[in-house]
Structure prediction request, 201 residues.
Amino acid sequence: MDSYVYRTVLKTGKSVYTDRGSRFLGFAFTIDNKVQFKERLKAIADLHPKASHYCYAYRVGFDGLVWRCSDNGEPSGVAGKPLLGQLDSFGLSCSAVVVVRYFGGTLLGVPGLIQAYRTCGKLSIENAVLGEKSIVKSGYITYDYTQEHNVHRIIQQFNISIKGIEQGIFPRMQIEIPLYNYSQVMEAIVVIPSLQWEEND
Prediction:
């Protein structure tokens, strides 16, 4: 894998795993940030209000350096870490896996729980569509309306994604530039009068 792409979940995967009456439901999906993960987790929890546990792991950022995992009341280390281990074994960034447990009345013990969460997480990832996405730099360009044609020419030429436009005296466009094109885009921007680039932190 080259330095311009990262591996992630392209299409959500789901799974079901049962052991001695307990039922585990797995979900693997892509996320852009921690806020988006919290929204997805809440949506899953709202769909399963009678479940006993909502365990998870995620990695955000193209390099996957920002991460978190949770056992959500299960014995320490039986759920979150095994789920994070599955994300890592598949080499995923900007991805999350959530496993919902319905308790079946029989204690599974630490080894049984580790096996259940690890297996359910793995199955949900295997059932997802995985692939590579381009690493991007995001930010805003502000320009004069007289340069609108030149702005759109650059966007088409360098495969830039438009995320939103704020209209005004000087339009402000939110964009994502593929990292492999970034230096060429900066060179093209410099020669356009009145165009300003503001990179997100």
About this structure: The helical segments are 34-47, 80-89, 109-126, 148-157, 182-190. The longest strand covers residues 22-30. The chain has a mean pLDDT of 94.
